[in-house]
Amino acid sequence: MIMHDPMAMRPFMGYNFGNYLKHWLNLEAKPHTVPKIFHVNWFRVDEEGEFLWPGFGDNIRVLDWVLRRCAGEEGIAEKTPVGYIPKKESFNLTNLGDLKWDELFSIPKYYWLDDIRESKRFLEDQVGTDVPQVIWDELDEQEKRLRDLL
Predict the structure, then answer these.
(1) Do residues 77 and 85 lie in contact, with contact meaning Cβ atoms separated by under 8 Å?
(2) Which of 51, 53, 61, 73 is at a distance of 20 to 30 A from 95, taking alpha carbons?
(3) DSSP readout, 85-133?
(4) How far apart are CA 40 and CA 73, in angstroms?
(5) Mean pLDDT of all residues in the chain?
(6) Residue 70 half-sphere exposure, CB side, CA atoms within 13 Å?
């Protein structure tokens, strides 16, 4: 059985998971700097089952973009209902051949809605009433943004 663990951290919780989440949320207060979080799916496939991303040797292109975002470079990202994605012109596409850019960076509405549903179920089952309200609010807001997609 596969356990849905959206942060891949559940096995490492040594104390109340809700308190653990609150701890991370409190890092935003001074003097801490909250780390930036990036979601990457190296294994996304097209309708024919072919990988959309060419492979490990080209992951440095993604890391280059991530580091530029972290450094505050402007104009290299566009906002979507699930966060920011690269603008095509900001990404090093040299020698990548026939990269299906639009498909690779599409936001499949029902995939993300399913992910939210699974995340909520995980939090209900694993954390219960200890889930910080701000997390429920963010999931609800993200779900609304996705439902508003055409």
Answers:
(1) yes
(2) 73
(3) EE-GGGS--TT--S--HHHHT---HHHHHHHHHHHHHHHHHHTGGGS-H
(4) 20
(5) 90
(6) 12
pTM: 0.81
pLDDT score recorded for residue 2: 63
How many distinct helices (H) and strands (E) make up the chain? 5, 2
DSSP 12: G
Q: Name residue 46's amino acid.
A: D
Distance CA(125)–CA(128), nearest Å, equals 6
84 bridge partner residues: 79
